[in-house]
Amino acid sequence: MSLKEYSVQDLLTTLITKNLANPINPFFMVEDLNKEGVFVETDNDKCRIMIGNEFDGLLFRGQNRDWDFTSSYSRITSPLEKCIHWIKKEEFKEFFRTTPFFYRLQTEIKCRGKEFEFDLEALAQHYEFKTNYLDITKDFTIAMFFAYTDYINGQYVPIDFQNKDKNYEPHIYIANLGILNVATNNEDLKVVGFQASPRPLAQKAMAINLSDGADVKNLFAKISLPKNEYFTVGIYNSFKKGYKLFKPDILSPFVAKIKESTKISPVLLERYCEEFNVESAEIKKELAENNYILENAIHKLSKEETKNMNKCIDNEILPYIRNYIGHRRVSKPL
Fold first, then answer.
1. Phi, psi of 206 (to 5 degrees)
2. pTM score, two decimals?
3. Which has fewest Cβ within 10 Å: 12, 202, 239, 259?
4. Is residue 132 part of a domain?
5. Is residue 258 predicted with pLDDT exceeding 60?
6. In sequence order, which residues have a C-beta less than 8 Å from that of residue 267 and are 6 or more positions away?
7. What are 261-288's pLDDT values in tens digits?
8. Phi, psi of 134, rounded to the nearest 5 degrees
9. Is there a contact between 290 and 264 (Cβ–Cβ < 8 Å)?
10. What does the alpha-carbon distance between residue 172 and residue 141 come to, in Å, rounded to a whole number?
């Protein structure tokens, strides 16, 4: 955030909040280094949370090869697979709207009267549904994990430099949040650091919306990493073979159920065909040939599952917000 955005009112706000004892730097700005994120304002007059210290604008992306910055959904070439993945993603979003995470935290997480706004597309991305978002992170070491691993047969494994077919070239890409946001006209950058779920928090995750074909790769500086198998294994093991970043949480069983199900919602299928101008009869024929069933999947929470989700909110999410997210003001993202 630029210096000119701060005023005497902001300073007074700081002095009457729980950050009273925080040191004030020479520019009359306050940053509590114990905080792990801050609130930012959305275009809908609500708030989101950006992970990372308030004046740290660096963003990172790790890649095991020097690929273009393309989203997971745009890399799908099969028309049938595009349809299936889009429907699965939308099914997850519809399910999440029925959980206590969604209907409680929208109103219980607030900053200066502004209610919390979910980015469900981003949340789906971080649970590995295919979207038009591109993952980035606030944590350099997390970016290194993705630079030194490959996703093979459903799991992350250390890259093998002896595999000449893969031609691994580990890189870290670094961007400045302020420059990136200005270059994308405040439209494509999505602050998704904390989405009321442990996984994006564990990954210190943000994302860029590439739905409109935004080309942002030239806004990142590229750093080549050493091709060292011992270093590769060391990075992999430091994250407990990926467990720290992909630890199963309370949403994981529902994510797995949605992904593995052969049921396809007729309503979502019609939405897909209408939105993407696809002939529904042809898609239905292909789905049937691939053993998919046109039937609504019901994801109704049991009393015990609802209780456990509320427990997670009360014991993990809300305490995290109170203790580690800066409440002193809401400002526009950089």
1. -135, -175
2. 0.82
3. 12
4. yes
5. yes
6. 296
7. 999 999 999 999 999 999 999 999 999 9
8. -115, 130
9. no
10. 10
Can you read off the two tokens belonging to residue 204? 């210190």
When divided into structural domains, the chain yields a total of: 1
Note down the domain range covering 204: 35-261+297-328
For residue 205, which of 114, 143, 262, 118 has the smallest C-alpha distance?
Answer: 143
Distance CA 189, CA 196 (A): 19
Q: How many residues does the chain have?
A: 334
| 283 in a structural domain | no
Residue 12 domain-assigned? Answer: no
Q: How far apart are CA 213 and CA 184, in angstroms?
A: 11
Rounded distance between C-alpha atoms, residue 126 and residue 170, angstroms: 22
For the segment 34-70, what is each residue's pLDDT rounded down to a tens digit?
777 888 888 788 888 887 766 677 889 999 998 888 8
Show the tokens assigned to 43: 């275009």
Is 334 contained in some domain? no
Decide: 105 and 178 in contact? Cβ < 8 Å: no
- In contact, 128 and 134? CB cutoff 8 Å: no
And the tokens for 1? 């955030």
